[in-house]
Amino acid sequence: MKLTFFKGARLKDPSGLFNSSLEGNAGRAIDLHEDEKLDEPAFKALIRNAVALNTSPGRGSRDAGSTERWVWSS
After folding, report:
1. pLDDT (tens digit, 9 = 90+) per residue, 15-30?
2. How far apart are the first and last CA of the chain?
3. b or e along 6-15 (b: 16 or more beta carbons within 10 Å of the residue's beta carbon)?
4. Strand ranges (DSSP E) for 6-72?
5. Are 24 and 11 in contact (CB under 8 A)?
C-alpha cells in the first residue's frame, strides 16, 4: 500500500517513515509491504503534523483553510 502526502516535503520526518517519492519537490510517500512493521507513534505524529499543515491559515487559496476543492479526472 502506498500512502501519499501531497505536501510531504514540507513535513519533518525524523523517524524516516517516508521511503518513496523522495526526489519530488512537494510530495512524499510511504510504501507499506505485507507484514512490515510501522513505527506507530512516529506515524501518528506524522499524521498530526500533516493535519496541522493542511488546516493552518495563510497558505494561499489552494492550500490549508481553503474551501476550494480540486477534482482530478483522466
Report:
1. 999 988 888 788 899 9
2. 22
3. eebeebebee
4. 28-31
5. no
Residues in the chain, how many? 74
Q: How far apart are CA 11 and CA 33, in angstroms?
A: 22
Q: For residue 69, what is its C-alpha cell? A: 476543492
- Indicate if the alpha-carbon torsion angle 50, 10, 5, 58 is positive or negative: positive
In this structure, what C-alpha cell is assigned to residue 3?
Answer: 500512502
Handedness of CA 4, 46, 32, 1 (dihedral sign): negative
Where does 9-69 show beta strands of DSSP type E? 28-31
Q: What predicted TM-score, i.e. pTM, was given to this entire model?
A: 0.68
Q: Which residue has the cell 512490515?
A: 36
